[in-house]
Amino acid sequence: MPPGDRNILPGTLELLVLRALRDGPAHGFAVSKDIRRRSDGVVDLADGAIYQALHRLENDGLVASHWGHSEKGKRAKFYDLTDDGLARLGAEARAWHRFVDAVAGILGPEYAPGGRGTGAR
Amino acid sequence: MSARGPLHRRALRLGGRGRRGAENEVNEELVFHFEALVEELEADGMTPGEARDEALRRFGDVEGTRRALARLTMRRREREGRTMSLDGWMQDVRYAVRALRKSPGYALIVVLTLGLGIGANAAVFSVMNPYFFRPLPYVEADQLVQVGHVDRSSGFTWARFSLPQIEDYRARARTVDAMAAYYYGSFNLTGPEGPERVTASIVSENLFDVLGTAPLLGRTFAAGEGGPAGADVVVLDHGLWQRRWGGDPAVVGRAIDLDGRPHEVIGVMPPDFVFPFGSVRLWVPDRRAAATAPREVQGNLIIARRAEGVSPERLQDDLARVHAELAAEYPDVDGNWDGVHTAGLREALNFGWDILRAGLFGFLAAVGAVLLIACVNVTSLTLSRGQSRLRELAVRNALGAGRGRLVRQLVLESAVLAVAGGLLGLGLASVATSGLGAVLPEDFYRVGDPDLDTRVLLFTMAVTLVTPFVFGLWPARATTRTDLTTSLRAGGSGGGQARRVLRVRRALVVSEIALGVVLVAATGLFLRSAVELGRSDLGLATNEMLTAEAIPPASDYPERADRVAYWDRVTEDARALPGVRAAATVYPLPLNHETPRYGYAAPGAEPPPDADWPIAYTLWSSPGYLDAAGIDLVAGRDFLPGEGEEEGGVQPALVSERVASALWPDGGAVGRTLLLQTSDPAAEVRVVGVIEDHHHDGISRTKDPLVYLPMERSANRRRFLVVRGDGAPTAFVPALRTAMRDVDPDLPVDFRPMSAIVTENSFQWSVSSGVLGVFGLVALLLAALGIYGVVSYTVSQRTREMAIRMSLGADGGVVRASVVWESLRLAAIGIAIGLAGALGVGRVVEAFLYGVAPADPVVLAGSVAVFVAVAALAAFLPARRAARVQPATALRAE
Questions:
Q1: Are the CB atoms for B809 and B400 separated by under 8 Å?
Q2: Inter-chain contact B60–A74, Cβ cutoff 8 Å?
Q3: Model pLDDT, residue B484
Q4: Longest Cα pair distance anywhere in chain A, in angstroms?
Q5: Is A48 in the B-facing interface, judged by CB distances under 8 Å?
Q6: pLDDT confidence of B315, banded at 50, 70, 90?
Q7: At CB < 8 Å, which residues of chain B contact A?
Q8: How far apart are CA B724 and CA B583, in angstroms?
Q9: For residue B718, what pLDDT is reported?
Q10: How many CB atoms lie within 10 A of CB B67?
Q11: A70 inside 8 A of chain B by CB
């Protein structure tokens, strides 16, 4: 079984891929590296899943692709956010935060980051 | 940046088609991923094996992912295949516009050049449209033909028919649905709106049914309204109705006076209806009785509608058969004609069909040449722009755009410019042709005015869409043929390629000059014709003659004596006006192209019975006409008053020198008699005077043989009063009008100075030289630009060579001369080819020239001189630049 698919919530994979493309066109390798770097390695996604997400997003029109050359001059497939993709990123990010806030509210202050309920550090 | 062989090529095809193609594309994406990751992991210190294992671990299910990605890619491609092509085009157009914005100078020159070229074509086509292309305003007009008797001896094909003949054709023809007859003339239209002479057509009652056109208001003629028992009814033309009655619908049902006789207006035709030509303002039914009409009086033309499924050839054969039958039955009437002729209405109704067709298609050829020159210039510009874009193209090539795609992109840029040029051209054409409808003569059959319509739009669009392929395709292919990778590395314009392009640009300039020489020479020929015409002596005092035309109607002037009295009175009154030196009447008017021709011979020297007699133009004049027209007597005298009044006997005649010397080469014509075929057998007339040769029927290359008969012998009600006096002819109009109104206030009179009639006659040459002159000037300008472009490009390419030559001691003058010489060499080749073309064109237009040979040395030498001058001038600026090259700077820059 590939690692990673189970340790994030459904729908989150697409959100993370969209976020990785927000700063400009990137190939799949760069997207994978970007997610790994931003999460300090905590989110350990399978690269295969990232590529499938990119292709699904492309088929949905949220991402566009073109063939170009990498920094080292090799041919690579670059992905870029479409206007729809950018809008979806905003909407998904807001939904994610509403979800997080709601879960945090259920858990209560003692389970807030640094609270007693999270246990001793 | 490099493009590795097989991988590169495979990628250019975007991995190919279908499932395999999709798998290839996915593989390439994933190969890149693994190579990049492994390289990075090795850089972090892993061994190649560890790095590969780690990359595979991080990826997860490689095979499953690969299959999933291929499936997604396939699905995407299927969908894009449907929408992508349009999107791709739009994207390309946007890119083209962006690329053109970067070179606004180039874009502007191309759009202006093409706009001029396309505009000239659209303008000429809009003028041709109403004559040749716009549908006739009749139902199924292609089934309609006009029928005419053929007179082979004179080559005339539209001789007319008498009413009994028409009845016979109606009864015997088997291939005809219906037949209508018509002729035309004029009426004096009187009423509270003032007297006016209007051209009218007198038609069989079924004419409108045969044409199939419905009236705008009211109705057309009903059965029974023609013939002696018919009704005095009239159908109005839309233009007359608008002009005279302000478009008042209440005119229908009202009575109007035609030649003093009330006619009830029963209908008004729609604006686009025209029959049989534009200046016909109303239609009345023919009220004569066919049964009792004489068979010899043949004055009607026939319009026939072909029966369903009958070919034009069968109709022609059928009518020829009827004619053969009738010729056998009536050898003295029908037998005098050589046969019958049929033709479609567009051609048959247009008196000027041949000359209009030759002239307008000639203009179209000329503007076609102008557009070709424009395209040649633009080709040249596009080539040099392509050279300066090699680096950009190389980059796009490296980014995966194949040659086909680059060619498509470059041609698309050309197409964007062509469309802009086409729009500009359409605007120019609509400005150029606006208001032309009011100026063009109405008597040449046409449908409407030369406005922009769908046909003009389609023509312009077709021309516009062809041009980018003419001027853009070849440069695009030439530019992308270069090894783009090489040019990318070299960073400049490839040397060999530049030389090849320059060679082609030189060839283009040569062809441009050749076309220009042809156009300028053609212009010269027509210009000289117009000049010769103005200079030529017609033998008439055209600048001093005023003419006044009137037709005393039968209602007010029933007897010939009444009409004679009217004209005598008017002539007397005109002579009494201050400043008038001479006044007399004539029929027909000089240069009116309606002078009858009759055979003539000396008694006792008639040609054998079957042979044709020599032809003389015959006209009628009153005493004093020779003075009024400025015609000199060579021998004898003018007619005397009342000389022609006696019935019978030998009538007096005047003959021109040509006739006199043909009959009596030894002189002594006065007092002799000649035979004139005005009747059968030929009438005998006695020469009382010989007059100098002059033009009468029209302006032709030679002066016509002329015979004058006394005015009293003319049966025609129509006459022209000719007045000659001191000062401008038009100055006499007010006084003469008053004098003529005093005699008959209701008789409409048309005044025209003779000089205006001469101008109308030289229309063909003045318009031709004017229009061709504009085209020739444009061609000259474009050729100058072309030469300038090529020479300055050569100079910029040869800067280094010039610098070396100058540092070796050549002075500026020598360098300058060598650049100008180069331009003149190109011009010489173009001029040589152009001269050959000009000789050919001269021969083609020979029939339309006046007083100038098709290979006129002045015209040819002039055209050559103009282009030599243009070539030298166009090279002068670049030559000066070349001579100013600073050797040190130029060599350092390299």
A1: no
A2: no
A3: 60
A4: 53
A5: yes
A6: very high
A7: 1-2, 7-8, 11, 14, 25, 28-30, 32-33, 35-37, 57-62, 64-65, 68-69, 72-73, 75-76, 79, 399-400
A8: 6
A9: 87
A10: 13
A11: yes
H-helix or E-strand containing B201? strand B196-203
Q: How high is the pLDDT of residue A111?
A: 81
pLDDT tens track for B583-615: 999 998 898 877 888 889 988 888 877 677 888
- Asked if B729 contacts B635 with a C-beta cutoff of 8 angstroms, the reply is no
Q: How is residue A23 annotated by DSSP?
A: T
Question: According to the model, what pLDDT value does residue B1 have?
Answer: 36
Nearest to B868, CA basis, from B813, B823, B834, B812: B823
The answer on pLDDT for B414 being more than 50 is yes
- Which of B69, B75, B80, B488 to mutate against chain A (most A CBs within 10 Å)? B69
- What secondary structure does DSSP assign to B256-299, as a single string? EEETTEEEEEEEE--TT--SS-TTEEEEEE--S-TTTS-TT---
Of residues B462 and B509, more confidence is placed in B462
Separation CA B285–CA B232 (nearest Å): 8
Give residue-wise pLDDT tens across range B680-738: 788 889 999 999 999 888 877 778 899 999 998 887 888 999 999 988 898 999 999 99
Q: Which residue of A has its CA nearest to B39?
A: A72
Beta bridge partner(s), residue B199: B186, B280
Q: How far is B482 from chain A (nearest CA, A)?
A: 23
Q: Determine, for residues A69 and B1 on separate chains, whether the beta-carbon distance falls below 8 Å.
A: yes
- Indicate if the pLDDT at residue B390 is higher than 60: yes
Q: Please tell me chain B's helix, strand, coil percentages from 3-state DSSP, rounded to the nearest 5.
A: 55, 15, 30
Query: Are A51 and B7 an interchain contact pair (Cβ–Cβ within 8 Å)?
Result: no
Is B303 in contact with B206 (CB distance < 8 Å)? no
Decide if B628 contacts B582 (C-beta within 8 A): yes
Q: Does the pLDDT value for residue B6 go beyond 70? A: no
Which of B44, B59, B80 has the highest number of chain A CBs within 10 A, making it the mutation to test binding with A? B59
Which residues in chain B are closer than 8 Å to A28, comparing Cβ atoms? 29, 33
CA-atom Rg of chain B in angstroms: 39
Q: Which residue of A has its CA nearest to B37?
A: A29
- Burial-class residue B776 by CB neighbours within 10 Å (0-12, 13-18, 19+): buried
Six-digit token string for B612: 């044709």
Nearest to B120 by CA among B357, B310, B344, B373: B373
Task: Please compute the mean of the pLDDT values over residues B377-403 and round it to a whole number.
Answer: 76
User: Distance (Å, rounded) from C-alpha B379 to C-alpha B473?
Assistant: 9
**Mind telling me how many Å the CA of A110 is from chain B's nearest CA?**
36
Rounded to the nearest angstrom, the minimum Cα separation between B409 and chain A is 18
Residue B313 vs residues B196, B200, B732: alpha-carbon distances, Å: 44, 32, 56
Tell me the sheet residues that pair with B599. B615
Instruction: Tell me if B400 and A67 make a contact (CB, 8 A cut-off).
Output: yes
pLDDT digits over A81-118, tens only? 998 999 999 998 998 899 888 888 888 888 877 666 55
Reported for B733-737, long-range contacts at CB under 8 A and 24+ positions apart, including other chains, are B733/B546, B735/B577, B735/B578, B736/B546, B736/B548, B736/B574, B736/B577
The interface pTM score, or ipTM, of the predicted complex is 0.89
Three-state DSSP at B340 gives strand
For B99-137, the pLDDT digits (tens) are 888 888 889 989 988 998 999 899 999 989 999 999 999
List the single residue in A with minimal CA-CA distance to B31.
A76
Highest mean pLDDT among B180-189, B346-355, B501-510: B180-189
Nearest to A55 among B1, B69, B399 (CB): B69
Contact call for B72 and A73, based on CB within 8 A: no
Contact indicator for B595, B696 with CB cutoff of 8 Å: yes
SS3 B594: coil
